[in-house]
Amino acid sequence: MNPLKILAFGAHPDDAELNVGGCAAMWVAQGHKVKFVSTTNGDVGHAFKSGKELAEIRRKEVEAAAEVLGIETEVMDVHDGELMPSLENRLMFLKYIREWEADIVIGHRPYDYHPDHRYTGVLMQDAAFMVTVKYVLPEIPCLTRNPVFLYSYDHFQTPVPFNPTIAVPIDSVIDKKLDALWCLESQIESYWYKENFVDVNPVPTEPEARAVRKQEFFDRCLWKPGWSKQADQYRELIRHTYGAEIAIQTKYAEAFEVCEYGRQPTQEELKNVFPNIGIQ
């Protein structure tokens, strides 16, 4: 199989890393090309930093995370909380998808608590048809084959609950995913500390103390229960794709739903797109 080109949109500089980081690491290990695009710059999501200072911090953090995962990354110049489903942004999505010549495009569902997440999903949907239309954004060659568009997991039920098409074991790369998330220090010290924008627990600079804090983060990462929930909730789907032995062993998973827009893959094609590289 020729190398795939995968593009994942995340609303903020951490969303794609959280939702797709495990699969990204596996794809890269298998010779595929992956790019994450943060659709806002994350310039308000901290307890005491904001604006250009925070945006620059967040950009550098996702660049460091990308280096860990072996992927490319980019951050759109849009203020956190201000992404809109405008024609200008739709054309930006088209630009990213076409320039990457994406085989697979991943993003949020348009049902979410956060408007940036919702509108990232809407913009991805709006681009799904237009990427093949020659005279829309004609300065960038259109794709001749529509990508497979996928939604990443969320837990929201209204108006439509997440309905996974595939769940992928990520146990073999969970430490690499956590290593990438460890790069997102501004989140670890602020929102990921107590899930609010008031409390702060700065990450130590002294090496031994940093090592202790890193281990605490690995052990108590507030997102790990979500990856475990996906493994437990969709274990039958894992069994169907990867077999009973792997399904029993799986502790962590990333689940995806095929969007009705874009190319509709067969289950066998999905299995090849999301191959398992072993459980540890």
Short description:
The chain is an alpha/beta fold. Helix content is 45%, strand content 14%. α1 packs across α5 and α3 crosses α4.
The counted number of beta strands is 7
CATH topology: Rossmann fold
Q: What is the beta-strand fraction?
A: 5-15%
Rg over CA atoms: 18 Å
> Helicity range of the residues?
40-55%
Q: Helix count, per DSSP? A: 12
**Low-confidence regions:** none
The name of the CATH architecture is: 3-Layer(aba) Sandwich
Structural class from helices and strands?
alpha/beta
- How would you spell out the order of helices and strands? EHEHEHEHEEHHHHHHHEH
Overall pLDDT confidence: 95
Number of domains: 1
CATH class: Alpha Beta
Any descriptors?
7 strands, 280 residues, Rossmann fold, 14% strand, alpha/beta, seven-stranded mixed β-sheet
Give a verbal description of the structure.
- The protein has 280 residues and is of the alpha/beta class.
- The protein is built from twelve helices and seven strands.
- The protein has helices spanning 15-29, 51-69, 87-100, 115-130, 174-182, 185-189, 191-194, 207-220, 224-233, 235-242, 244-249, 267-273; strands at 5-10, 33-38, 72-75, 104-107, 148-152, 166-169, 253-262.
- It has a seven-stranded mixed beta sheet with strand order 3-2-1-4-5-7-6, with helices on both faces.
Q: Topology of this protein?
A:
Layout: E1 5-10, H1 15-29, E2 33-38, H2 51-69, E3 72-75, H3 87-100, E4 104-107, H4 115-130, E5 148-152, E6 166-169, H5 174-182, H6 185-189, H7 191-194, H8 207-220, H9 224-233, H10 235-242, H11 244-249, E7 253-262, H12 267-273
Parallel strand pairs: 1-2, 1-4, 2-3, 4-5
Antiparallel strand pairs: 5-7, 6-7
Helix pairs in contact: 1-5, 2-5, 3-4
